[in-house]
Write a structure and sequence with these properties.
It comes from Nocardioides malaquae. The longest helix has 16 residues. 40% of the residues lie in helices and 14% in strands. The protein has an 8-stranded parallel beta sheet. The protein has 12 helices and 8 strands. Helix 6 packs parallel to helix 7.
């Protein structure tokens, strides 16, 4: 629960407030550190734990002092088993030490004690995988995420909840109509808006909405941050984001991975700075 002073019951400043301040200082870019096998190969590395560690630590050491948010996709670490997860723990720790916020991209969603276990794994400071925020799937019903919401509130963490994703398969679920006539995506956005009510300067609970979804058909402003994958190598542009988000563009956290990582070890910082300058146009 957030106290009247703006801190949480753990004494940590809420995620939304921390993100708002960091974006003002560093810009609104999020970079995903996603060690695809093809990227390891492009960097001249083997697709093994040693290659993973070299890739991930080189990327986080270069990027974490520059960008506001680092977003590791856990699957690319988990595929190497416990040694890969150990690398992920180092990525998280180093990113946070360098001043970046971490969004753990896991897209978890379940019910009851299982959801609580996911919350404990990613949103509780006692965990070695503790991150500032996590991606979550609401498609077992938004209420199934309640343990994540309450754990995030307690510890000053945040949630990014899938709402309107850019993959074409998502439309059949996300734009389907509920009994009251709203789309599924609209119900998710309404739930997030309720979690952020009366929060200033920015709530800690936001949607994931792709940069290339076209007309969202619904108000996307939830008084919280909006994680926007699809920027950069996937084709999303600042112009696309202006069309999709309108006045809500002030809350965007555009995310890119390959658009920066494909620059290679020597080009990471320059690529990130170009992207930071590019998305700064959202504030114009």
């Amino acid at each position: 629960m957030t106290t009247t002073s703006g801190s949480t019951t753990s004494g940590r400043e809420p995620f939304g407030a921390r993100l708002h301040r960091l974006v003002a200082a560093r810009g609104r870019l999020c970079v995903g550190i996603d060690p695809h096998a093809s990227l390891l190969q492009a960097w001249g590395l083997d697709d093994d734990v040693a290659g993973l560690e070299r890739f991930a630590m080189t990327a986080v050491e270069a990027l974490a002092p520059e960008v506001s948010v680092i977003k590791p996709q856990s699957a690319f670490y988990e595929r190497f088993g416990s040694r890969g997860v150990a690398v992920l723990e180092r990525v998280v720790a180093h990113a946070r030490e360098a001043g970046a916020l971490v969004c753990m991209d896991v897209k978890r969603g379940d019910i009851g004690s299982t959801t609580q276990a996911y919350a404990d794994a990613y949103l509780d400071p006692a965990s070695p995988l503790f991150s500032d925020s996590v991606t979550a799937s609401p498609f077992l019903g938004f209420g199934s995420l309640s343990p994540m919401v309450e754990t995030a509130r307690k510890h000053g963490s945040g949630l990014f909840v899938l709402a309107l994703t850019s993959n074409p398969e998502g439309r059949e679920v996300q734009r389907a109509r509920t009994e009251d006539g709203r789309t599924v995506a609209a119900t998710i956005l309404d739930a997030l808006r309720a979690l952020n009510v009366d929060t200033d300067p920015l709530g800690s609970f936001g949607p994931v909405i792709g940069a290339t979804v076209g007309d969202p058909g619904v108000d996307v402003d939830v008084n919280g941050p909006i994680l926007v994958p699809g920027y950069g190598a996937q084709g999303g542009t600042v112009s696309d984001m202006r069309r999709v988000f309108g006045d809500a563009a002030r809350a965007l956290v555009p995310s890119t991975s390959r658009g920066v990582l494909e620059a290679g070890p020597a080009g990471l910082v320059d690529a990130a700075r170009r992207a930071i300058d590019d998305v700064a146009a959202l504030d114009a």
